[in-house]
Structure formats: C-alpha cells, structure tokens
C-alpha cells in the first residue's frame, strides 16, 4: 500500500522517473515537488505553505507555482500560502490577506485589494506607486488635487473613506 501511495504521489507531481534519486540529485524545483508530495502523503484537509517558492529562480518559481496550482485544483485541497511576493499572491490566491505589524490590514479578492485598498499600506503592498496629496471638500463631493486636477463622483462612507462610484474620469478645471 505504501509503495502504491508513493508511486501515485510521484506521478501526481510528475516525478515518477525520479523515485530512486537522492535529494542531492534533484533540482530545486524537483525538491519542492517532492516536499509537496510528502505533505500530501498524509491526506491533509488543509495545506499550509510558508514561502515555498522563495529559494527558486524566477523561471523555476513560476513553473513550480503553476505545477502546485494544477495539483491543488486536481485534489481540491484548501491551502494557505504565506508570501512576501505580491505577484505570487495575486497569481495564486482566490483571497488575499495583507498583514501589517502582525494584524490583518485587509482581506479580499486580489481584484478588490488592488482596486479598493483599505489603506496606504495595502495600496503600496499591491504595487500602487502614484499617490497625490489632496484636500477633501465634503460639501463639493470632490477631491481637489494640486494644479486644479479633480477626481469627481466620490461617494462618502461613514468611516470617512471614499470610493469612486464609476471609473475615474479625470477632468481639468477650477
């Protein structure tokens, strides 16, 4: 039974011809796939991964990541992935939790975090690079930016945060 399970897991991670090799004879990506097979051997209901692709070069990391996603979907296993790489988080996750100082700063879909970050910290993590100083004039329901650039159509939340009601149409004027 053990031999059958090992063979099935090696086939799952596409390493069936490498079963007799020693760890030193495997590439970095192959070692990561073996580690995944070992974790799956216990048939967990939840897979926890802590920076599993960080030691791999870019191309190998992308290939191994795609392979992991294929396996995860084939098995239908829930996974929690810890990473400092926002590209990796956005490419792999259905939901992303951004941590700041040991606390969850925001949880949501990759699209929601990118389009509606809850804080500047989340925006910076998501890769937003353009921040403009602004003065909010609630009465006019607009953000007035330097040089009279306006971003109209702002809806106000009770918490004082704002969100665009529709795509940002920037208009010039006073």
Question: Which terms summarize this structure?
Answer:
two-stranded parallel ribbon; elongated; single chain; 4-stranded antiparallel β-sheet; 174 residues; alpha+beta; disordered C terminus
What is the compact description of this entry?
With 174 residues, this protein is α+β, with helices and mostly antiparallel strands. Helix content is 35%, strand content 22%.
What does this structure look like?
It is a single chain. With 174 residues, the protein is of the alpha+beta class. The chain has helices spanning 2-12, 28-40, 58-75, 86-92, 110-115, 120-125, and strands spanning 46-50, 78-82, 96-100, 103-108, 135-137, 142-144, 149-151, 154-156, 162-164, 171-172. The strands form four sheets. Strands 5-6-7-10 form a four-stranded antiparallel beta sheet, with no helix packed on it. It has a two-stranded parallel ribbon with strand order 1-2. Strand 5 and strand 6 form a beta hairpin. The longest helix is centred in the middle third of the chain and has 18 residues, at 58-75. The protein is elongated and about 70 Å long. The N and C termini lie far apart (77 Å). The model is unreliable at 152-174 (pLDDT under 50).
């Amino acid at each position: 039974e053990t031999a059958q399970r090992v063979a099935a897991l090696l086939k799952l991670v596409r390493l069936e011809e490498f079963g007799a090799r020693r760890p030193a004879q495997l590439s970095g990506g192959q070692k990561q796939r073996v580690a995944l097979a070992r974790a799956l051997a216990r048939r967990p209901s939840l897979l926890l991964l802590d920076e599993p692709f960080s030691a791999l070069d870019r191309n190998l990391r992308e290939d191994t990541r795609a392979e992991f996603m294929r396996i995860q979907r084939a098995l239908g296993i829930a996974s929690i992935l810890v990473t400092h790489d926002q590209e990796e988080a956005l490419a792999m996750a259905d939901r992303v939790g951004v941590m700041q100082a040991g606390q969850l700063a925001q949880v949501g879909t990759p699209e929601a975090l990118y389009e509606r970050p809850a804080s500047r910290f989340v925006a910076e993590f998501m890769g937003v690079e353009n921040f403009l100083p602004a003065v909010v004039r609630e009465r006019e329901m607009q953000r007035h930016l330097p040089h009279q650039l306006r971003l109209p159509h702002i809806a106000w939340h009770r918490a004082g945060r704002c969100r665009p009601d529709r795509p940002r149409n920037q208009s010039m004027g006073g």
